[in-house]
Amino acid sequence: MRDEVRRVPEIIVSDAVSRSFGSFVAIDNVSLTVREGQFITIVGPSGCGKSTLLQILGGLVAPSSGEVLIDGEKLNGPRPDKIGMVFQEPLLLPWKTAAENVEFPLLLRHVSAKERRERSLALLDLVGLAASVGRYPHQLSGGMKQRVAIARGLVQHPRIVLMDEPFAALDEQTRSRMWGELLRIWERTHATILFVTHGLLEAIYLADTVLVMGTDPGRIIARIDVPLPRPRTYEMVGSAEAGRLRNQIWELVASGQ
Amino acid sequence: MSAVSLQTRWAWRMVIAVLCIGLWELAFRIGLLNPIIFGAPSLVVKAAMSDGLLFLQAFRVTLVEIALAALIACIGGIVCGVLLGAVPIAAVTFTPILSAIIAVPLVILYPVLVVWFGIGPPSKVIYGAVIAFFPIALTTMLGVRAVDPSFAVMATAMGAPRWRVLVSVTVPLALPAVIAGLRIGLAFIIISVVQGEMVASYDGLGFWISYHRTIFNTGHVYLGIILTLILAVGLNEILSRLERRYSGWRVQTQPSL
Q1: How much is the pTM?
Q2: What is the ipTM of this complex?
């Protein structure tokens, strides 16, 4: 098992990455390695720089020192061909239909209209919105909008998907349904997912590995492997194992601030 | 939208208009209103028929002046507003100046403009354009600045270069504010063009009204007033259509103005 894992290529390498804004150190000396196909969640107290770290890994914010390697290549800016992003808010363009929103990244790359439509339909089908292709954002529920945003993040078939608290604005029931959806999508696409969240159970339920961040300065204080078997089922959220992990992570988060 | 249908609303408007005109004419016929001061619908019709439909010439002059002033103010105001909104330093520098200029009664410029551009239409066009430019530029800039910056982050992550973020995401999101600015600006144009014609000119509706007032042609004066109203209502209708077309994606809970 261990040797098998070693052979999977390292798709994200963060080497001593730091980022300051003026005198404020948002991210301090973060080194991490993510192997292809892993599902990693990042938890930590508010203001610990989780989102900043994700933006650095997405090429949206340049590190003050250190470097990020994607597929062994130094990251110098957004790489929409390799990295898909999903944000806390759906950020759908209100004058575009669900399909047109999903096609937006393809439009930017001058993909033909026919191919754009084929790919957006396939992605909307994957996220379970085949029936809402022509609807506008204001005609969709919060959960549906976030699914469109996920489809948009996946439409360029990125090997990495960075998700910044994508379910934080959803209600509890919708959120737990989205967990199952996301894991199903992850298994279908074989993408590598980095998922930032406030929810400890969410972090445990989804992840192979939970990274715990401490604040002031933002840094990684622990790396916890989740031994729950796959496929995950909703009952596992209430299992003793999940509870034990949650307590362990809670202690770490509390001590890290 | 409200439960009252469009046809019903228009029917009521027509009924009220016909009623008002009828009462006006009736008051004149039974000698209740002095026609020299209050005119009468029949006198307005008589004025329109006299001089071989000369009023159409005045109407056309004012319409062209307003259209040209609107064109200059819209293009200038929107382009400047977008550029100012897109560059934070520029916005911080120029916002106080723009709002201060709006508070200045720019009518003080009018005598100078007449000296520079003559007593004919060009001075009215320039005067209207200058007056409308500032509110349009200011609201456009504020609209661009008010767009949630997360949308720009999203578009950047999807691979959009900076200019494309502005053109395809930020400016369209600011359109409702831009159109609100146009509404104010165009109202200013009608006021200033007609006022300018009243103060110094040889043609146009403003000139028509003030000229006929001095020779007690009350029917002509009221005709001029009605034609100016028609211009204003027509312009407002064009704006409402623009608003429905380009900000229809805002949830429509209020009747459009």
Answers
A1: 0.81
A2: 0.89
